[in-house]
Task: inverse folding
């Protein structure tokens, strides 16, 4: 009996010893690794293989020759991109849309959240939240379709309204001037409400005593918002701003692809749509990969830069 | 916070409530207009312009869109992709998230880095397209699911949720001799129903709304999901898009407003049905904790 116990103990000790080594520990966790593998395979195949595929930007890739046999051409495609007359147009379209996004969209969820945060009747608050979150769950096709129905020249509601008020009808869908406002308004319609969630959560964590103290000092509601609510959500605003800047070149391919037509191409063409047309429609795989790579690199540099600046300024940063 | 009874406070509330009410109305009225318009006649819509509650009810638009099997086929593709896609995504996401939720796991931070890096940098459209093509997925329904199976953001939310579950239950199961697989299926998943439901709904909405993968990977129009058909009928027909090369279909005149509206409603209704469930869960903060994670 006693001997048996001793024996078991020594076996356990041996097992313990085996499991303390690196390989032993991994063997013990083999089930966990098996659970991770399918997902990891997904990331390797559909995220990292394409990253490796970027090498074709430095080749003259021909589908029938494959990755191994295609000729290497160095930076030829990049040189072509920078000398392409369209390059400056696309770059400025991208930057203008980004600036509009930052200027006209970014503050709106903050303002909306501040307004919602001041609502004391929880029923009304829930009602507004329920309504403004809805568009976020609609596809861009639905958002753009409804906009088109409202804006069309042929019995579109907005144009009928303009005509009724004595103005001339406007061909919103095929004009250069209206593309950018339409783009930003659609983003506001779809995302402004959803964007409030994070700010509202941050506001819920503010200590109520701060407001009480401010009231004692005679601060009115606007001053309370300015001196307490806004400073309290500052770090959240900065984090979201960094993330937004990192997205400078991710202007929503799904969205713009739907709005783009031959009449507004001059202002609506961005890197993504250009890559689609050059790559998939005209079959210039290597050149369009170079364009996409250029875009990704700029995005990565921007987000790292914004993060670095935020950290220098004494904020947390994201990464 | 206490009620603010001062005159300034009341004025502030009045302005604030009014503005919020107007904003809500602007947000929701286009949807209501489209739904109402789809249930009336072309004549009524032309006469009244802005319909909120139709005086003449009609199902003619719906009869028309279901008179051929195009919409019906597209809807069944969308339903199938949504069901299988959600199941597949959830399986991969939950398994991987559980594995990554164990802090002692060797290589965990390296794998997390592999995941997070894909949120910062990607290979781009063309290399991704070539990978999908090399995998032989072009013109298969799998192309709508497999290349987007895991959303890194959802994976991280799920992992954080698992990580925050109390250790005690798992420990006692381990003493009873259960392995990780047993703990995962018998304890962790049943405890995580709210998180699993939320993430499933997010995946389901994404799959229902999918259109770009279909345009990129499906040349065969018979396999298109409903969003692509909606784009054909509404966006391309009214936008006179320059990209007419994939216009390949059979209608001649631009379809009547009521028909466009009916197609929009058909593509929207499933979202509106799950919306109350979505709302119940996402507000609970499954999302919020992870933003800075």
Result:
């Amino acid at each position: 009996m006693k001997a048996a116990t001793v024996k078991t103990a020594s076996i356990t000790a041996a097992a313990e010893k085996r499991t303390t080594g690196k390989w032993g520990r991994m063997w013990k966790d083999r089930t966990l690794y098996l659970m991770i593998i399918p997902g990891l395979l997904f990331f390797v195949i559909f995220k990292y293989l394409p990253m490796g595929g970027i090498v074709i930007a430095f080749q003259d890739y021909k589908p029938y020759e494959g990755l191994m046999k295609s000729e290497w051409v160095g930076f030829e495609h990049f040189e072509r991109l920078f000398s392409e007359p369209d390059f400056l147009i696309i770059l400025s379209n991208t930057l203008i849309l980004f600036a509009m996004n930052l200027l006209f969209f970014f503050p709106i969820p903050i303002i909306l959240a501040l307004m919602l945060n001041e609502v004391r009747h929880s029923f009304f608050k829930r009602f507004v939240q329920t309504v403004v979150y809805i568009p976020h769950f609609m596809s861009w096709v639905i958002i753009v379709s409804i906009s088109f129905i409202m804006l069309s020249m042929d019995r579109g509601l907005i144009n009928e309204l303009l005509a009724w008020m004595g103005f001339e009808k406007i061909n919103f869908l095929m004009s250069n001037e209206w593309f950018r406002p339409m783009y930003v308004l659609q983003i506001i319609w779809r995302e402004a409400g959803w964007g409030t969630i994070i700010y509202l959560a941050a506001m819920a964590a503010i200590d109520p005593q701060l407001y009480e103290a401010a009231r004692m000092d005679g601060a009115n509601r606007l001053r309370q918002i300015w001196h307490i609510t806004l400073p309290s959500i500052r770090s959240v605003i900065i984090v979201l701003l960094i993330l937004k800047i990192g997205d400078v070149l991710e202007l929503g391919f799904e969205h713009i692809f739907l709005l783009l037509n031959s009449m507004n191409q001059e202002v609506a063409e961005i890197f993504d749509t250009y890559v689609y047309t050059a790559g998939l429609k005209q079959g210039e795989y290597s050149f369009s990969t170079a364009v996409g790579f250029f875009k990704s690199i700029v995005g990565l540099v921007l987000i790292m830069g914004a993060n670095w600046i935020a950290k220098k300024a004494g904020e947390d940063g994201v990464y | 916070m206490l009620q603010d009874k001062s005159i300034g406070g009341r004025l502030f509330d009045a302005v604030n409530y009014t503005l919020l009410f107007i904003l809500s109305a602007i947000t929701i009225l286009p949807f209501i207009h489209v739904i109402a318009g789809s249930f009336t006649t072309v004549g009524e819509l032309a006469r009244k312009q802005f319909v909120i509650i139709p005086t003449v009810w009609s199902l003619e638009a719906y009869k028309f869109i279901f008179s051929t099997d195009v919409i019906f086929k597209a809807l069944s593709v969308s339903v199938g992709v949504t069901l299988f896609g959600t199941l597949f995504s959830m399986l991969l996401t939950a398994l991987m998230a559980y594995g990554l939720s164990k802090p002692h796991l060797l290589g965990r931070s390296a794998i997390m880095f592999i995941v997070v890096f894909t949120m910062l940098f990607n290979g781009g459209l063309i290399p991704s397209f070539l990978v999908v093509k090399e995998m032989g997925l072009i013109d298969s329904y799998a192309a709508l699911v497999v290349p987007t199976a895991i959303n890194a953001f959802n994976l991280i939310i799920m992992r954080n949720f698992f990580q925050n579950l109390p250790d005690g239950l798992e420990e006692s199961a381990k003493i009873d001799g259960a392995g990780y697989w047993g703990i995962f299926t018998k304890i962790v998943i049943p405890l995580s129903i709210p998180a699993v439901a939320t993430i499933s709904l997010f995946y389901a909405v994404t799959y229902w709304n999918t259109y770009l993968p279909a345009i990129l990977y499906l040349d065969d129009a018979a396999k298109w999901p409903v969003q692509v058909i909606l784009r054909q009928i509404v966006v391309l027909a009214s936008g006179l898009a320059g990209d007419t090369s994939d216009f390949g279909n059979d209608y001649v005149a631009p379809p009547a407003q009521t028909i466009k509206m009916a197609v929009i409603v058909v593509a929207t209704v499933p979202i509106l049905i799950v919306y109350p469930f979505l709302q119940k869960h996402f507000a609970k903060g499954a999302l919020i904790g992870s933003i800075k994670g």
About this structure: The longest helix of chain B spans residues 7-38.
